[in-house]
UniProtKB/TrEMBL annotation:
Organism (species): Gossypium lobatum
Domain of life of the source: Eukaryota
GO BP annotation list: endonucleolytic cleavage of tricistronic rRNA transcript (SSU-rRNA, 5.8S rRNA, LSU-rRNA); maturation of SSU-rRNA from tricistronic rRNA transcript (SSU-rRNA, 5.8S rRNA, LSU-rRNA)
Segments forming domain Ribosome biogenesis protein BMS1/TSR1 C-terminal: 9-304
The name this protein goes by in its record: Ribosome biogenesis protein BMS1/TSR1 C-terminal domain-containing protein
InterPro entries reported in the protein's UniProt record: Bms1/Tsr1, BMS1_TSR1_C
GO cellular component: a single term: preribosome, small subunit precursor
Single GO term (MF): GTPase activity
Length: 317
């Protein structure tokens, strides 16, 4: 109940200084208008992915090139309705064995790839939880993405689709009844492309349909921010000033986070003036009178990225 009502609130640890525990977080004056460099402090996985200067222009060029090759009727292409023999090299033994076993009971579908579709990037899907699936779906959980003719394992993070800003708030779970954006590391594909997300249930052999959607865009520079809220409580209130405790536990942390704006659940905004004592108390100044039962909050953000999957394909492939 508390997690659903206050999903972003976290407790400051007693044994670790807040300036170290939340070293990757920063404050924002405005979530909508404050600047955030999309190239700053990128994870090692970004060295393994491909980025487009203009995805829309590249897609138009790739599709036009594929149509031209199809209409030319070249000698190195197999005509429609003909038989062809394929030789597949450098395939792991277990994958080849599974493929041969599957070919005895069902047809094997071979699909060609367009230019760039063998490369990895950050794909963003518009996704909605399926009505028949009741279990929670947490960010970074392993899902099986069935995208077009491809099927692979991914660990997505979910976020809102903020049309008024270049920053988007991360969601800890995929909520039912509305669309969210799922971001994953995956092979490049070109929209429009449908999506079916499957999830392996504990003890069940067949994965269940967990969510459906479609490919929205390919953009490694899309900024997804994880938000946390530190809370404290006013101990003494005098007009516009208040002594706040329990947000931090030592004066060094108060000085470290002093530039970040504070706000209250009753709508007041203010700033940290100075630390008080040796146990993390601080003096704050607000834009209006503070009530004794109010809660003082500080919002911090860090950029979130999808998890690189431990294996590319489902275990039964």
């Amino acid at each position: 109940m508390l997690i659903s009502e206050f999903p972003d609130e976290v407790d400051t640890p007693l044994d670790v200084p807040a300036r170290k525990r939340f070293a990757k977080y920063r404050g924002l004056k405005s979530f909508r208008t404050s600047l955030w460099d999309p190239k700053e402090s990128l994870p090692p996985e970004y060295a393994r992915i491909f980025a487009f200067d203009s995805f829309a222009r590249t897609q138009k060029h790739v599709v036009a090139k594929a149509l031209k090759v199809e209409q030319e009727g070249r000698d190195d292409c197999a005509p429609v309705g003909s038989f062809a023999r394929f030789y597949i090299k450098e395939v792991p033994f277990h994958a080849a064995s599974n493929l041969c076993a599957a070919s005895r009971t069902a047809a094997i579908v071979l699909c060609g790839l367009l230019q760039h579709e063998s490369k990895m990037s950050v794909l963003h899907f518009s996704i909605k939880k399926h009505d028949s699936y009741d279990a929670p779906i947490k960010s970074k959980e392993e899902l099986i993405f069935h995208v077009g003719f491809r099927q692979f394992v991914a660990r997505p993070i979910f976020s809102t689709d903020n049309i008024n800003s270049d920053k988007h708030k991360m969601e800890r779970f995929l909520h039912a009844g509305r669309f969210s954006i799922a971001s994953i590391y995956a092979p490049i594909s070109f929209p429009p492309l449908p999506l079916i997300a499957l999830k392996n249930a504990a003890g069940a052999g067949t994965p269940a349909v967990a969510a459906v959607g479609s490919l929205r865009s390919i953009d490694p520079d899309r900024i997804i921010l994880k938000k946390i809220i530190l809370t404290g409580y006013p101990q003494r209130v005098s007009k516009l000033k208040a002594t706040v405790r329990y947000m931090f536990h030592n004066p060094e942390d108060v000085r470290w986070f002093k530039p970040v704006e504070v706000w209250t659940k009753c709508g007041r905004r203010g700033r940290v003036k100075e630390p008080i004592g040796t146990h993390g108390g601080m003096k704050c100044i607000f834009n209006g009178g503070l009530q004794q039962h109010d809660t003082v909050c500080m919002s911090l953000y860090k950029r979130a990225y999808p998890k690189w999957p431990e294996h590319r394909f489902p275990a039964n492939v």
